[in-house]
C-alpha cells in the first residue's frame, strides 16, 4: 500500500468511522439497528447493516492486507457518512432513524 490516495482513503475512513469494532458489533445486534436502512429485494438485512459487519472486519484488518475491494468499500462508507451527516435533522437526534442509519455505517454523530 504505497499509493498516497490509498492512505488518504484509509485516513478518511478512520475519521468517518468513530465507533470501535466492539461498539459497532453491540449496536448491530439491536432491534433499532435492524429497523433502519434500505433492503435489497430478497434480503432481510439492510445495506447499512451489512456494511456495518464489513466495517468491523475492516477495522480488525491490518492496513497492509487491505484489498482494492476493501478500499472501495471504505470510499463508500466515507461518502455515505458525509452525505448522510449533511442531512442532520433539527432538534435532539439521539433516538432518530437518521442517527441509527449512521451508526450502522460505524458513525455515531453524538460522539
Q: Uncertain segments of ≥5 residues (pLDDT<50)?
A: none
Give the overall shape: globular
The helix/strand class is mainly alpha
Helical coverage, percent range: 55-70%
Q: What radius of gyration results from the CA coordinates?
A: 14 Å
* Major β-sheet annotation: none
What number of domains?
A: 1
Q: Percent of residues in beta strands? A: under 5%
**What is the string of helix and strand elements?**
HHHHHH
Number of helices: 6
Mean pLDDT: 93
Q: Distance N terminus to C terminus?
A: 30 Å
Number of strands: 0
Task: Give a structural overview.
The protein has helices at 4-16, 21-28, 31-34, 47-59, 68-85, 97-104. The protein is mostly helical. It has one domain (4-37, 44-104). It is globular. The mean pLDDT is 93.
